[in-house]
Specification:
The chain contains 13 helices and 23 strands. It is of the alpha+beta class. The chain folds into 2 domains: 204 residues, UDP-n-acetylglucosamine1-carboxyvinyl-transferase, Chain (Alpha-beta prism); 208 residues, UDP-n-acetylglucosamine1-carboxyvinyl-transferase, Chain (Alpha-beta prism), CATH 3.65.10. The chain has a 4-stranded mixed sheet with strand order 21-22-1-23. Strands 2-14-16-15 form a 4-stranded mixed sheet. A 4-stranded mixed sheet has the order 4-5-3-13, covered by helices on one side. A hairpin with a 2-residue loop joins strand 15 and strand 16. The longest helix is centred in the middle third of the chain and has 14 residues. It is elongated and about 65 Å long. The protein binds uridine-diphosphate-N-acetylglucosamine.
Length: 427
């Protein structure tokens, strides 16, 4: 276990490079193993532990995966040979279930553990499984595994019950090598889905309509390895914007696609933040105090659920009361930790009512999930005194060089490793 220690009260200033998108990387690294000709060379892959997990899963299945000296990830899918994914690896992360789409497409057989519950509530994979069955796979659930088989998947017309990023990605991966045409209706429109489609098309797939509600995938016989650079992480960018906003800072974010952050930018502007765009850079200038703003999370292009927690953190010090409605996940457990820092938040079902307070105070808090960790760090950066974030390794799942980047912007932040949770070495 590790602890992030933050002494709050310093405005963030300077410039920071935004890394490649974690959620894009997870999909694209798996999809890269669809190639049976040549290898994929992937650039801008972030170094988080979730990406490491997906690489380990692929290696365990026989795929060759390695980094070169320029930090580009090489994936050679030709050697994929094993159809059963390891529980020990898959249980660490839900996106591991993408391996099911890959295995069905490539080997016609997949045995993948069902992901369990997680800290942001129940997250079933029933839409994925229904989709595989509609693509012609025989599917059974046995001993905690999904076991699916099909000599070759067959294109189908699939309506996804609820716009789901993971289902759209998994079915795109599976259908790209299917016989015939697949149409995904009510598909997710997230930029990561579009990134995957562009990547797959580069490999020789025939996908149209990504970014709209209807994606059409004409199956092809085989795919080939290509070089590709993934999109910047809009959630990391939004997190740094909110950290700048709450600390009264002035920061330039480099390597950003502003279009991917349209709604978060509008909300931050409503809160009094000045955001100016110049090519791939965004300058974020915070007011003396933020104004309270209401937010509702929605599928893209709506306000992302992954920024709900960081946004609530920023609203804790705003002038007025903001109402934040979460429509995607059960994501409010972390507010108890914010309350321990002096925040005034009430939750009713899927709504948080945040009354801005003049000051937060540092406290020991526990990181319950990835974005909760980011939220607590944001609150800590503006709090008076010292905050200790226990379980900070969860932040490493999706943020590359988190404390290094914050430190380069002037934050007082460092990390301690705990061998025995009771022994925190105080510097
Ligand atoms: C992905 C993102 C996550 C983001 C989320 C919503 C990755 C690796 N993770 O998660 O960061 O917060 O999109 O933007 O890209 N659902 C079902 N059955 C299913 C699948 C989903 O009921 O089979 C429900 C979920 O519980 C949730 C909603 O559909 O309420 C949307 O989930 P989904 O978009 O699939 O989220 P993930 O792909 O898991």
């Amino acid at each position: 276990m590790s602890v992030l220690i933050i002494e709050g009260g310093r405005p963030l200033r300077g410039s920071v490079d935004i890394s490649g998108a974690k959620n894009s990387a997870l999909a694209i690294v798996v999809a890269a193993a669809l190639a049976t000709e040549g290898e994929c060379v992937l650039d801008n892959i972030p170094q988080g532990s979730d990406v490491n997990t997906i690489c380990q899963i692929l290696q365990d299945l026989g795929v060759e995966v390695w980094y070169d000296d320029q930090r580009r990830l090489h994936v050679r899918g030709e050697t994929l040979s094993k159809h059963k994914a390891s529980y020990e690896l898959v249980r660490r992360m839900r996106a591991s279930f993408y391996s099911a789409g890959l295995l069905l497409a490539r080997l016609g057989k997949a045995e993948v553990p069902l992901p369990g519950g997680c800290a942001i509530g129940s997250r079933p994979v029933d839409f994925h499984i229904k989709g595989f069955a509609q693509l012609g796979a025989e599917v059974v659930i046995e001993h905690g595994y999904m076991k699916a088989e099909a000599t070759r998947l067959k294109g189908a017309h699939i309506y996804i019950n609820r716009s789901s990023v993971g289902t759209t990605i998994n079915l795109m991966i599976a259908a790209s090598l299917a016989e015939g045409t697949t149409v995904l209706e009510n598909a997710a429109k997230e930029p990561e889905v579009v990134d995957l489609a562009i990547f797959l098309n580069g490999m020789g797939a025939k996908i149209r309509g990504a970014g709209t509600e209807s994606i059409r995938i004409e199956g092809v016989e085989k795919l080939r390895g290509i070089e590709y650079s993934i999109i910047p992480d809009r959630i990391e960018a939004g997190t740094f914007m909110l950290a700048t906003a709450i600390t009264g800072g002035d920061v330039v974010l480099r390597n950003v696609v502003a279009e991917h952050l349209r709604v978060p930018i509008v909300k931050m502007e409503e809160a009094g933040v000045r955001v100016t765009r110049s090519g791939t850079e965004l300058r974020v200038v915070a007011p003396r105090r933020l104004k309270a703003v209401d937010v509702e999370t929605l599928p893209y292009p709506g306000f992302p659920t992954d920024l709900q927690q960081p946004f609530v953190a920023a609203m804790c010090l705003a002038d007025g009361t903001s109402v934040v409605r979460e429509t995607i996940f059960d994501r409010f457990r972390y507010v108890d930790e914010l309350r321990r820092m002096g925040a005034d938040i009430k939750t009713e079902q899927n709504t948080a009512i945040v009354r801005g307070v003049p000051q937060l105070t540092g406290a020991p808090v526990e990181v319950t999930d990835l974005r909760a960790g980011a939220a607590l760090a944001i609150a800590a950066l503006a709090a008076q005194g010292r905050t200790e974030l226990y379980g900070a390794e969860i932040i490493d799942r999706g943020y590359e060089f988190f404390e290094e980047k914050l430190r380069s912007l002037g934050a007082n932040i460092y990390r301690e490793q705990l061998t025995n949770p009771r022994e925190l070495v105080i510097k």
